[in-house]
Amino acid sequence: MGIVLNIQDLTVTYKTRRGTACGVNNVSLELEENRTLGLAGESGCGKSTLGRAIMRLVPYPGRIVNGSIILDIDRDIEYQGGFIGKGPKDLMEFSENEMRALRGEEMAYIFQDPMTSLNPMKTIGSHFVELVKAHYPTMEKAEAIERAKEILENLGILPERVDDYPHQFSGGMRQRVMIGLGLALRPRLLIADEPTTSLDVIVEAQILQQMAQLKEKFNLTMMLITHNLGVLAQTADSIAIMYAGRIVEVADTGALFERPQHPYTKALLESVPDVTKPEKTLCCIPGSPPDLIQPISGCPYGPRCAQMKDTCRRIEPLLVRSSTGGLVACNQYTGD
Amino acid sequence: MTLRSYVVSRLLLTIPMIMLLVTLVFIILRIVPGDPASLHFEKHVDPVVLAAFRHEFGLDLPIWEQYVNYLASLFRLDLGVSMGSSRTPIVYAIVTRFPATLELAIYSMLFAVLFGIALGIKSSKKYGSATDTSIRLFGIITYAIPVFFLGSVLQIIFAVWLHWVPSGGRFENAFLAYQPPTITGLYTIDSLLTGNLFAFVVSLKCLILPSVTLGTVLCGIFVRLTRTNMLETLRMDFVVAAEARGLPENVVTMSYAFKNAFLPILTMIGLQFAALLAGAVLTETTFNWQGLGTFLVDSINSRDYTAVQGIVVFFGVLVTLVSLVVDLFYAYLDPRIRL
Description:
The complex is a heterodimer.
Chain A: E1 3-15, E2 20-32, E3 36-40, H1 47-54, E4 62-73, E5 77-79, E6 82-84, E7 87-90, H2 96-102, E8 107-110, H3 124-135, H4 141-154, H5 171-183, E9 189-193, H6 201-218, E10 221-226, H7 229-235, E11 238-243, E12 246-252, H8 253-258, H9 263-270, H10 310-314, E13 320-321, E14 327-328, H11 331-334
Parallel strand pairs in A: 3-10, 3-11, 8-9, 9-10
Antiparallel strand pairs in A: 1-2, 1-4, 4-7, 5-6, 11-12, 12-14, 13-14
Chain B: H1 3-31, H2 36-40, H3 47-56, H4 63-75, H5 90-125, H6 130-144, H7 147-161, H8 187-193, H9 197-234, H10 237-244, H11 249-279, H12 281-286, H13 292-301, H14 305-333
Helix pairs in contact in B: 1-14, 5-6, 5-9, 5-11, 6-9, 7-9, 8-9, 9-11, 10-11, 11-14, 13-14
């Protein structure tokens, strides 16, 4: 199976008044074709920054300082003033114009809050028209509208609603529109940043199901960013757990839930309530994540870890192959 | 509510507003020391003449009676005549002088808005850079600079030293024969309407200095307002989402970020335009611009009660009309507001 996205040693820093915070720290990750990788972790662990970094859209004052993002482009892309041939390319070497040609066409991003992701001053239809015009300037407006109607209909929205404004849609419908916009030009890679967090559970289930169907239909490779492990259990093929800007464990979904390796992953799973075992007390992880501005010596999870040893204070663990076939960054597996 | 009933109700609302305004002005004028009759004549005038003047304008009546009489004439849409020796009807004074003020206001506003918004957008796009800092500094300096000072400096440079433009007036005296006939009273428009291109150029040259002066002072507000609002909308999800779809930079900036940042700017344009109409006095004085502002100041100095009251009523109506137009624009621009 082909590798669609290969991230190597990616580091993103935010310059703040207090100092430089390392939002994403030396992350390497692979996304296989037509698979969904779940990216999980608590707030501030850098999962959204990683997602935005792949699009080369890290918000100010963040900056990608190191690493490569190699995307396997599956088509020749022509754009105003240039041409990008297919094949694996390092996005870090692309100009802003080349990135604009790729965004929306080859890679799409869906945001957390559908209520604020659409321009309130524009109709749904003109969102589609602008997208199409940006990538295919020669296409007629009428044709773009026809395509928009078709996409909306596929997503269960009445096609005549193309002329409506975002405020006339509900949250779930708006997220469907966002998905439609994301997939309109048949991208290869879809990054969904907590796409269902702000929706109620019923709509969440519908949207997740729809995304799974679309993934099969369009042969999509997906990265699903969330803090909801339950969502990942249903949708992800494999899961990467992030902590303090680092990947601490990567494993196939089944393996991760059955035999978590990293103490942090174990603690995260312990803190998910289980209806079948009401007598079990819910556990929580003591302490809070480290300050990303202060330099961390040793294991970043160390101070909160129940199995901390002396070496954890000194040595930062590297990702190594675990017994379940995944990757884990913990000193108890590297010690010997 | 339909659009028509909204407009009608807003217009009807102006009536009590104007009443209140008139009452305030009426009271203030009579509290302020100084008497129109004695200011009108030279010193040591015959008391009989003074009494005759007071009788002519009803100033010898009790105050409440003066007030009732004034309101009554106002309801007949009669603004009265000026207390000056010419006894000019106030309506005539407004009709002849207001176009000058309006023309100056339009051109300075145009300059301030275009220049201010362009700089504000540039500044927000270059947030945190040296460009941003210099534009912000420019905004603060121009906002703080007195209009008569900037006006005089520009006059010295461009009129006295370089002779590029006249130093004041609405039309150059040497070309008075070419002055366009009064249609709207706005020289640039009248000369275009009559196809008189030469007169258009002459009146435009006269307009440049005063409108650039006033426009520069005014543009500071728009620079700051545009920058602040743009910084806010540029961070918004829908702008980032547009970036993530690969839309061209100018589309993201203009039709995503700026289109949403524009509404508060529109409000400010309305407010400032109303203030400009009444408050361009200093510019009018600096550039010898015979507008309504100078007329108002002269009338206040001579305690010309009827003139001051008349002009205030006129400005009051104007301000409400401008704010109504702004509201209608709002509804037109923002699909979430439908009247």
